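Contributing new records

If you add data, match the layout below exactly. Sequence lines come first and carry their own label; structure lines follow with theirs. Keep one chain per record. Anything else will be rejected by the validation script.
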Amino acid sequence: MNVNKKLGRFKQWAGEKMGGEAKTGVSDDFKNLELEMTLRHEGLDKMHGSMATYVKSLSRRAEGNDREKTLPGGHLGSTMVTHSEDFEPDSEFGNCLSSLGRANERLARVQETYVAGATSTWLEGLERGLAQMKEYQAARKKLEARRLAYDAALAKMEKAKKEDFRVEEELRSQKAKYEESSEDVYRRMQDIKESEVDLVGDLTSFLEAELTYYDRCREVLLNVKREWPAR
């Protein structure tokens, strides 16, 4: 890009800011889609942040006596089991500790499975959505640059005092580039809307993973309660 073209674009941008130049407009449908993309982007970004925090909190590990990092629930269970071995085999307290401790170790394994499922469904789905939105933003930035170039060429054409083939050719070229980018941005916005199907699928899978997690946790604890050693 040469200096004259850059200067032309700057003058066009400055003219718009000062109200001295007309800005190439887009349809109301296009504007509404752009607004929708902004809202979608903000929503995806916030959901991704909260989901990442949620998964991280479930994945945070504690350091046990053997220096092995385990989930807090698993660490809790192992300390119960270890202390239960300090009592006689027929100790009610010792057997209760062992029973609930081993249950918590199992719950930690269930939690690890759940974290993996939550990550591979909703979290990764959100990341794909943000990646798609990033590509749209890049295309939108390119469109704005081409719009400025097109408007600069149009202003140059209007100010020409006589026919100039080079000016006309530049205008045709910039218009074609602008229309190409406009179509690309519009297509990307439509693709983002259509990708809702994939996001719904990811969200459904996350719901199933969450249901399975809590069902298994309840099952483990109910089994402990049914065989609780305390009289």
